[in-house]
Specification:
468 residues, Rossmann fold, five-stranded parallel sheet, 19 helices, globular, DNA binding
């Protein structure tokens, strides 16, 4: 049973989520509630929790602060973020910290409860190894030349091994973990076992047969752990449904993925938001190589893809550049690359429906990214057009056609949208917020804010928190 803790400063939200959602149908049980991050940490110390649902904006200790602390104290804890739809940057930070999903409160309707829990349950199953001890795991293998492992990357469902294998003399057959099995037989019987296993691959979805060499003088525990680690790292990238047999040596180098550097993540994001990769094979292949070179774990890769899709849709969903759809689950890099290919085709088709070249579309995207990532600077259409080597009048025309707003309208809009997040999720002063979104005059900022929202910043904060 997956034990669940709900953390939200709104008692009605906590009670509603606890009582309304069909937890039992997904082998989940709500074992506690907390009204802020500090109380949540106290609860985590007192009893085990497998899954924590946490709000981001809370008194005493915010959800982001709670995630930082919980990640250090309880690295196995799964975290899902409860959020308002405006919390774009905070969701990105939560995903970077390891959240496996997020739930927008405004979308919590009865007909979606089952879908939300099914999605979370699927992700937990996909990121969690079922630990199964092998008998005599400290015994050293001295008799067997190879070990054969049939591994399924499908973590959504349980597969029962039903095929009848010919019994072999001195055969060792173990279940390594859920949906993963291993065999070892004397050398003179290996050919027969290999052909039987190869023929059985079509019985198990997304399966691969590993032929593992250099196994002698290793304990069975070492062999089992090597298979587990290989499955979670290298196999994720090596899997190909058209080539399901993979010879691999236990002498192979470090199979663990390294912690990605911020500059590597930023480089991938910059490449994604450039237009050329969707129009030219060479740039597409460079982007794919950048992804693969990081060797991210599945959870890390999911977080990166989520942040890319969310940022794209945040910037372009309401424009002629269009929305892109998230890949909701994947078990291998093969599936991820198929999704990237489809996404590239969709972006390319949208671009081709405009009257502008890929280079001009790329320039407008760059302008949007520059302004978005440095709101404190007072960028102008004239300055950016010069930086991008385009005439001011043509830049202004292209920008309005592609983004649906003039540059000045767009600049004001995104600054006000960012200020809304600050107002709802921080206790900072109006002057502090105004400076962070590029306004040095608090009164002028308040006037702009009221023109776009109909409310003063203080009224918006009071109303937003009151509704919450």
């Amino acid at each position: 049973m997956i034990k669940v803790l709900i953390v939200d400063d709104d008692k009605l939200v906590r009670k509603g989520i606890s009582s309304a959602m069909p937890w039992n149908e997904f082998n989940m049980e709500v074992v506690g509630e907390a009204s802020n991050g500090a109380k949540a940490l106290d609860f985590l110390k007192s009893q085990p929790v497998d899954l924590m649902l946490t709000d981001l904006a809370m008194p005493v200790m915010s959800g982001i602060e709670l995630m930082h602390a919980a990640r250090q104290l309880y690295p196995e804890l799964h975290i899902v973020v409860l959020t308002l739809h405006q919390d774009f940057d905070y969701i990105q930070e939560a995903l970077r910290l390891g959240a496996i999903d997020y739930i927008a409160k405004v979308q919590l309707e009865k007909e979606q409860f089952e879908h939300v829990l099914h999605r979370i349950h699927t992700r937990i199953n996909g990121l969690t190894n079922t630990k199964i001890k092998m008998p005599s795991q400290n015994a050293i293998n001295v008799h067997y030349r190879n070990v054969y492992a049939l591994v399924s990357l499908d973590r959504k469902s349980e597969h029962t091994w039903t095929m009848e294998l010919t019994a072999h003399e001195d055969e060792i057959r173990w279940e390594v973990e859920r949906n993963s099995w291993m065999w070892a037989v004397p050398q003179y019987e290996e050919d027969q076992l290999f052909h039987q296993l190869k023929e059985s691959l079509n019985q198990v979805p997304q399966s691969t047969l590993l032929v593992l060499s250099d196994v002698q003088e290793r304990t069975w525990s070492q062999i089992k752990n090597w298979i587990l680690n290989y499955t979670e790292t290298s196999l994720f990238y090596a899997y190909n449904p058209s080539d399901q047999v993979i010879p691999v040596s236990m002498k192979e180098g470090d199979i663990f993925s390294k912690e990605p550097q911020d500059e590597d993540i930023d480089r991938i994001k910059q490449s994604w938001f450039q237009t050329l990769w969707t129009h030219h094979d060479s740039y597409y292949n460079q982007l794919i190589d950048q992804f693969k070179s990081l060797r991210l774990h599945k959870g890390q890769l999911m977080g990166l893809l989520y942040s890319i899709v969310m940022e794209w849709n945040h910037l372009f969903a309401q424009t002629t550049l269009g929305r892109i759809s998230m890949i909701h689950s994947f078990e291998s890099w093969f599936e991820v690359e198929e999704w990237i290919k489809q996404t590239a085709a969709g972006i390319r088709k949208t671009d081709e429906q405009t009257s502008y070249s890929p280079e001009i579309i790329d320039a407008v995207k760059k302008a949007v990214m520059i302004v978005q990532h440095d709101l404190e600077q007072a960028y102008t259409a004239s300055g950016l057009s010069q930086q991008l080597n385009i005439s001011r009048s043509y830049f202004s025309q292209c920008f309005k056609d592609l983004m649906g707003k003039t540059f000045n309208e767009y600049s004001r809009f995104i600054r006000v949208e960012k200020s809304k997040e600050y107002l709802l999720n921080t206790n900072n002063t109006i002057f502090w917020i105004a400076e962070r979104v590029g306004y040095t005059d608090e009164k002028y900022f308040s006037r702009i804010f009221r023109e776009l929202t109909g409310l003063l910043p203080s009224e918006y904060r009071q109303l937003g928190r009151g509704n919450k």
